[in-house]
Amino acid sequence: MIDETILATIDKLSWIRQSLLWKIGKQYNLSPLQVQIMNCLNKQSSENSNITQLSKFLFITKSTVSDAVKTLEKKNLVIKRFSKENKKKSIIAFTQKGKNIIKKISAWNKDFNTQLKKFNNKTKKTISLFLLEFILPLKNAGIIDTAKTCIACENFLYNFNKNDESHFCKLLNKIVDTSEIKLDCEEFLEKKSVKLVNNS
Ligand code: SF4
């Protein structure tokens, strides 16, 4: 019963968030997919702002992303250019018009953030750890291709300091609190085998 409730709640929250994003996108004449791509681009580093990464992030085909990006280009919201780091690599960047609109679209998260602030940190850390770990078996079962979270990273030492339950990132040489565990870190290095820490 609890499993179904967890999944139904994840679905419900996800649909509420999608519909808020779509609603705000509509104000700027953007389809649901176009607004998702704009939102996704806003979170990616410029190196990851390409069709392949967007298709992985949104779990849709490259051709679907490519068509939507072409429409965004026609609307003068994004532009394709070569990466500064790798001149052969094409990346997608916001135009000035796109930057102005994404600033307004980013406000869609405001209501969720306000509500989340009302919960205590201990609860949020437990939930965050559970959700991040929940991605791992999905990858092992072949449902998703990657699970780029610190927990599955070669550089991560879980519960490094047992006294305060903090962790450690060997690459950044830095103590990591549970609230700082990352999703989609660019330096992620996949671990060969990952032991779930939240399953007792
Ligand atoms: S390299 Fe990135 S994903 Fe890996 S432990 Fe450090 S912060 Fe986390």
Helix/strand/pairing category: mainly alpha
* Strand numbers in spatial order across the main sheet: 3-4-5
Enumerate the distinct ligands: iron/sulfur cluster
Our count of helices gives 7
Could you give me the name of the CATH homologous superfamily of the largest domain? Winged helix-like DNA-binding domain superfamily/Winged helix DNA-binding domain
CATH topology of the largest domain: Arc Repressor Mutant, subunit A
Strand content: 5-15%
Q: Work out the count of structural domains.
A: 2
Distance between the termini: 18 Å
At the first level of CATH, the class of the largest domain is Mainly Alpha
Largest sheet: 3 strands, antiparallel
* Overall geometric form: globular
**Mean pLDDT over the residues:** 89
Q: Helix-strand pattern, N to C?
A: HHHHEEHHHEEE
Low-confidence stretches: none
Rg, rounded, reads 19 Å
DSSP E strands, number: 5
Helix content: 40-55%
CATH architecture of the largest domain: Orthogonal Bundle
Task: Describe this structure as you would to a colleague.
By secondary structure, the chain is mainly alpha-helical. It folds into two domains: 111 residues, Arc Repressor Mutant, subunit A, CATH 1.10.10.10; 62 residues, no CATH class. The protein is 48% helix and 12% strand. The protein contains seven helices and five strands. The strands form two sheets. Strands 3-4-5 form a three-stranded antiparallel beta sheet, with no helix packed on it. It has a two-stranded antiparallel sheet with strand order 1-2. Strand 3 and strand 4 form a beta hairpin. The longest helix has 25 residues. The radius of gyration is 19 Å and the shape is globular. The two termini are 18 Å apart. The mean pLDDT is 89. Iron/sulfur cluster binds next to loops.
